[in-house]
Amino acid sequence: MAEPLFHSYGGLSRFSGRISTIRCLEDNSRFRELIVQDGSGRVIVMDGGGSLRRALVGDQLAAIALSNNWQGIVVHGAVRDAEMLANLPLGVFALGLCPMRPANDGAGYQGITVQFAGISFEPGHHLYADQNGIVVAPRALS
């Protein structure tokens, strides 16, 4: 179970799926690459280093993720466009809000184990998120 650090900003406060990971710091280039893929049954876990200086996800990119069937996004960092995110049927959990755009310099990594909130997020493991928190399991729970 993840430490209770996250707030729900998306229109869905409950979501689950297989984990796809990104590690980035104030740069959402890898996120932009990932959201155009088919996200059916998958969630994105972004380790933004806990930075609240730049938002890694906004309404436009969240809408692209939604159109490609992603179930949800967990951001160890900031998001923006809170009013618009709340109207999208997508789970979005983050540490907080920030109006600043991220960099797009191509920095970051995909598909690696990331660690924050007291747990490890392994690509392919399963994440379950709701108003009570976030749980990760190596296999799907019934």
Please bin the fraction of helical residues. 10-25%
Total helical segments? 3
List the domain count as a whole number. 1
* Relevant CATH superfamily: Ribonuclease E inhibitor RraA/RraA-like
**How many beta-strand segments?**
11
Strand content: 35-45%
Shape: globular
Which topology does CATH recognise?
A: Glucose Oxidase, domain 1
Mean pLDDT: 97
Question: What structural category characterises the helix and strand content?
Answer: mainly beta
Written as H for each helix and E for each strand, in order along the chain, the element string is: EEHEEHEHEEEEEE
Architecture overview:
The chain has helices spanning 29-35, 59-67, 82-85, and strands at 7-8, 15-23, 42-47, 55-57, 72-79, 91-97, 109-110, 114-116, 119-121, 126-130, 133-137. The chain is mainly beta. It has one domain (7-137): 3-Layer(bba) Sandwich (Glucose Oxidase, domain 1), CATH 3.50.30. The strands form 2 sheets. Strands 1, 2, 3, 4, 5, 6, 7, 10 and 11 form a 9-stranded mixed beta sheet that branches. A two-stranded antiparallel ribbon has the order 8-9. The mean pLDDT is 97.
